[in-house]
Design a protein that fits this description.
The complex is a heterodimer.
Chain A lengths: L8 H20 L6 H29 L4 H21 L3 H8 L1 H4 L2 H14 L5 H8 L5 H21 L1
Chain B lengths: L1 E3 L3 E3 L4 E9 L1 H4 L9 E2 L10 H19 L9 E5 L6 H7 L6 E3 L6 H14 L5 E8 L1 H8 L15 E2 L2 E8 L5 E7 L14 H20 L8 E4 L3 H14 L7 E3 H4 L12 E2 L1 H17 L5 E9 L3 H5 L6 E10 L2
Classes of the chains: A mainly alpha, B alpha/beta.
Chain lengths: 160, 334
């Protein structure tokens, strides 16, 4: 399949033999990702983030006597603000490096992707920079959110 | 100047007049920090945008190298420069402030050596007397260009490299100095069909090995001819692959190192697998290696810079990452 692209078949044969050597050498020195370690860190740290969220929610309900739904919204708002703040201070990327999915999956990860994109594009101006690029990373999550809500909404409607 | 073997050039009269380097904070704190001419405490180098900061680094090294060589702007006949930004804007924007002809080149991270090869041709044919070869890279512009926003909290794998914030300039001339540029080998684009854009060292290692093999066979030299064989930015994983490929071809290199491993302290600085970018070889060669050559601690050094030929679109389209490598030999002459 590859052969037809090469003008000189002799070069193809040489490069084909070499390619095997290259790929063997790359395979031999393959760096293993520390999946177990990353998973444990993500589980523990992500869990702690959620625990803090739960504590904030309960405190809001106890102290400020707000109802469950409002407490949820307020808790999310607090997390989004804190995440954006720490992104701006240059701390969230260090946290993300350790926590991995534990920093990515909660709503803090979403806020970080928005803020970091916005900061990065600041030099290109407000409209062409910040506004256009803000959802560069988060856009995918919004699309999947919208598509899946249409899909599951339809299924629920039909089942009823 | 003449062609040797298949891909190589032998130079007669190309000498290194002066070199200069300017970097960000992390490089200054690295093991070769004391050899760096100028450094900044912040990545923004007192400028408003990262791109402007990179321009400033380039301008610094032009000024410093001219001052060191006691030359003036009018004495320079040509600037050959390149960087990693789209359409090499940083190099062009730097050159617009000088009354000197400019050739902009793009060779991914090979630029420091590629600019020397391009410049040496004009020197050796006696077309020009003094040519400034310049390159730079910046951590934040490269992250923006090739990876994620700087403050994005995604987890990076250990194989990823840290782009060097720095610029290096070499003024080459046809008047005799102690350091001579003797040989050059122009590399081929080699595709090992490796696709991990977070592990570019391994993608580039095959091209470096091919260029070294070609260089040695073109000049009919043993690898031990050189006191030091230096690769550009293969990082930890890539240099292992490089050595393994050469072993397969029965080439043993006794004195080998990688610029990406020299510029940072891998154990104490958070740099993952080492340094990368045009500035990596640009800074290491123009500061530390030149100092060792001047002190005659090293007498023959072969520098092979390596470049990964990709952009974010090609990576997203699941294309493999071909590599290229160019080599230049520096020798001390009495």
């Amino acid at each position: 399949m590859y052969k037809k692209y090469y003008i000189s078949s002799k070069y193809y044969e040489v490069i084909f033999l070499d390619k095997k050597i290259f790929q063997e050498a790359i395979e031999k020195n393959k760096t293993k990702r520390p999946i177990l370690k990353n998973s444990i860190y993500a589980f523990v740290i992500g869990g702690l983030v959620c625990l803090v969220g739960e504590v904030i929610r309960l405190l809001l309900m106890r102290i400020f006597k707000v109802d469950n739904k409002t407490a949820n919204t307020l808790m999310l708002l607090i997390f989004i603000t804190l995440s954006s703040l720490f992104t701006g201070l240059g701390l969230y990327d260090k946290f993300g490096q350790i926590a991995g999915a534990g920093a990515f999956v909660p709503i803090t990860g979403f806020a970080n992707s928005l803020t970091s994109s916005a900061i990065e594009s600041k030099s290109e101006g407000i409209v062409l920079g910040t506004m256009m690029n803000m959802f560069k990373l988060a856009g995918a999550i919004i699309v999947i959110g919208a598509v899946s809500s249409v899909l599951f909404g339809t299924i629920i409607y039909l089942l009823r | 100047m003449k062609r040797v073997g298949k891909n190589s050039i032998l130079f007669d009269n190309v000498y290194v007049l002066e070199t200069a380097t300017s970097t960000g904070p992390r490089e200054k704190k690295g093991p070769i920090g004391e050899y760096i001419d100028k450094d900044y405490e912040n990545l923004n180098c007192l400028e408003k945008s990262w791109e402007k900061a990179e321009c400033r680094l380039q301008k610094d090294v032009i000024e410093i190298s001219l001052k060191k060589a006691s030359l003036e702007e009018k004495d320079l006949d040509l600037i050959v420069s390149g960087d990693l930004n789209n359409q090499i804007v940083v190099s062009s924007f730097t050159a617009k402030d000088y009354d000197i002809p400019h050739i902009g080149i793009y060779g991914a991270c090979t630029t420091s050596i590629l600019s020397l090869i391009v410049g040496s041709n004009y020197i050796d044919t006696k077309t020009f007397n003094n040519v400034l070869c310049l390159t730079s890279s910046h951590y934040a512009t490269s992250e923006k260009q090739f990876r994620f926003p700087t403050e994005y909290g995604g987890q990076k794998p250990d194989t990823t490299t840290t782009t060097v914030t720095g610029s290096g300039a070499t003024i080459i001339t046809n008047q005799k100095t102690t350091i001579k540029i003797t040989k050059a080998t122009i590399g081929k684009v080699i595709d090992a069909e490796y696709k991990d854009a977070q592990d570019l060292g391994k993608a580039m290692a095959p091209s470096a090995a091919v260029t070294l093999k070609q260089h040695l066979s073109d000049f009919n030299l043993p690898a031990s001819y050189y006191d030091l064989i230096l690769t550009g930015d293969l990082s930890l994983g890539g240099s292992k692959v490089f050595i393994d490929i050469l072993k397969e071809w029965d080439i043993i290199i006794p004195n080998y190192n990688d610029c990406g491993l020299m510029i940072y302290d891998l154990n104490n600085q958070e740099v993952f697998s080492g340094g990368s970018g045009c500035g990596c070889a640009g800074v290491v060669v123009n500061s530390y290696i030149m100092a060792l050559l001047r002190k005659k601690i090293l007498k023959k050094v072969l520098v092979i810079t390596t470049g990964a030929l990709m952009n974010p679109i090609s990576t997203a389209q699941k294309e493999s990452i071909p590599g290229i490598a160019h080599a230049v030999a520096f020798e001390v002459v009495e």
